[in-house]
Amino acid sequence: MTPASGSGADRRADVLIYVQHLLGTGHLVRTAAIAAAAAAAGLSVVVASGGLPLPGLRLGGARLVQLPPARAADETFAALVDEAGRVVDEAWRMHRRARLIDLFRATRPRVLVTEMFPFGRRLMRFELLPLLECARAVRPRPRIVCSLRDVLTTHRTPGKTAWILDTFARFYDLALVHGDPAFLPLECSFPAATRIAAHLRYTGYVAASAPPAARDGSRDCGRGEVVVSAGGGAVAAPLATTAVAARAHAGPLSTVPWRVLIGSGLPEPAFQSIRAAAPAGVIVTRARPDFPALLARARLSISQAGYNTALDVLRAGVPALFVPYAARGETEQSLRARALARIGVAGVLDPAELAPEALARAAMEAAARPPVPLHLHLDGAAQSARILRALAQTVPA
Fold it and tell me: Which residues of the chain fall below pLDDT 50?
């Protein structure tokens, strides 16, 4: 079924999922995988997406409703801007809040899911708190669920943890944690998780579906290459720029092609500048949907340590080097990367040390590391669908 991207969703849904990606695209990709699995399990699913549209998003039988798009102005997450880069005003907020509430009333979902909120996305409180109040007031009341990745950003603002716990207790029935507690329990990044343990359900990791064939039709595309994934968002430039210069210093890896993939979130002028600087042997392209297939044939993966990219790398079983994004106090990727390094499945380069020579040395070490089997629960999309289906069945028609 082709997902609808318009504002209309004029029939009741079993599940309405709200998602807002602000810089990268990982939140939307993970949500889409869960929505597709829930639709495949027989649920009617609507995804309300508030971020910039993502071409090629795979939603299966779920329907997409695109809210007026917005993103973070920069990595501080201090301001919200519209698709033209203008800081949003109160009129814009009122319009989008009304669109979201209208969608909720039109779909009358049995289960309402908010991705990250209240553990993140506080920038969207202007529409999410009214949505939750509306959901709590209707009868029959929908089940209200939070969808969480395995690692949260450390909260340093005084009172923020108390606000999260209070908001969760006020509105939510469950939090679905898309991770494996045997590997990385939520309390590693959010110690207060122990206080809501009875309301947490670990689903396992939400891995992508089977990768599509290489789009150029070549089964050998990527074979033996160093594949560099610089991320899907606007912060890809440092790793991509460094990788372009690192190949010349990489010893035996300097004789194989390096393929640098950059997502659509990096503005076109910056992308073209990196591409123009690439020497022979370095291919700079936009990210491609057959990334998992490229990894499966690669000699080495170099990437950030975002949720979806890390899973793609681990599923491919390719030697890997992670350079986690850690600007402005971000801790999520560093925690995940260090956990993987501790069990020996990947190398990690501290982003503070990112330079061509250092990246080349770390790449050679990672390529020479013997493979280590990794046992993680990777059926998170299907398990999430089973939980959502069971919840939906508890709400009368």
Answer: 1-8, 214, 217
